[in-house]
Amino acid sequence: MLTPEQVEFYEENGYLHIPEVFTPEEMDEMEEQLDFLMNNWAFTEKGWTGPWRLVYMDPDTEEKSKLTALHDLHFYSEAWMRAVTNPALSAAMSDLLGPNVEVHHMTLHAKPPQTGHPFPMHQDNAFYQHSDNRYVDVLVHVDDTRHENGEIRFLAGSHKMGALEHITQTPDGPCTPHLPTDRYKLDDTVAVPAKRGDVVCFNIFTIHGSYINRTRQVRRLVRCGFRDPLNKQLGGQSLGRPGIMVRGLRPKVAETAPLTIEAVA
Ligand SMILES: O=C(O)CCC(=O)C(=O)O
To answer: 79, 116, 160, 164: least buried by Cβ within 10 Å?
Structure first.
């Protein structure tokens, strides 16, 4: 699926834009089912919290700024189950991760029109900590992105720094993990605008963020997390939950028991 040059680009920069992974017909079906999910299941709230908000936004915008989100769309929608198990996408993940690829989670991030939530600089590892970097996040683009609607942006090569400590506490209590705004700036990042049907993938340690959506249309990206099943999760989102295998096998390591059949309360 990927050329050696694409794999080398990912390894060097910590991100990769893969155009036209999904066909227009697949995108139509995914969009139709996403409309249902957004109308019925997703939540629109203030979004990520923390002192970064008043660095990225003036007080009036900060007051209005929102994010629409939903986790694990493949548990609600056939089209999104097909998307996360798409053979071309699994093949690309295998090129980056090795022969065995497990789905970890999916998360919708829709930036509502005009004041849709910017994202402060962060590593996704701060949200679902893993032992090593055998983890790729994939942003499935439901809408074309550009500067005006807040395309994804990366600090190229930053994955080589490994896991960084994030700000998670303020004098007023806990906040969403993010990196210090005076040291890590969106202005220093590479913009990766993409088209509907493209994916942009990145390493769990790659520092990234995005600007506010200033357009009159919603900007919808769905993130799918893929990992080597031997990359042990240490904390955070979906901890302890096995995912489906989209490539290869779950290796048996001496001390591990079979997956439990008990439901998690
Ligand atoms: O949706 C965006 O613009 C940023 C998404 C992001 O930071 C993430 O998925 O980790």
So the answer is: 160
- Which atom belonging to ligand 1 lies closest to the Cα atom of 122? 7
Assign 263 a pLDDT band (cuts: 50, 70, 90). low
Check whether 24 has a pLDDT greater than 60: yes
Helices 87-97, 4-13: crossing angle, 10 deg rounding: 60
Residue pLDDT, tens place only, 196-207: 999 999 999 999
d(CA 106, CA 91): 18
Helices (H) and strands (E) in the chain, counts: 6, 14
CA torsion angle 125 128 131 133 (round to 10):
-40
Fold that domain 4-247 belongs to in CATH? Jelly Rolls (2.60.120)
How many angstroms is it from 145 CA to the middle of ligand 1? 12
Whole-number CA gyration radius for the chain: 18
Best mutation site among 109, 142, 148 for ligand 1 pocket (most ligand atoms within 8 Å of CB): 109
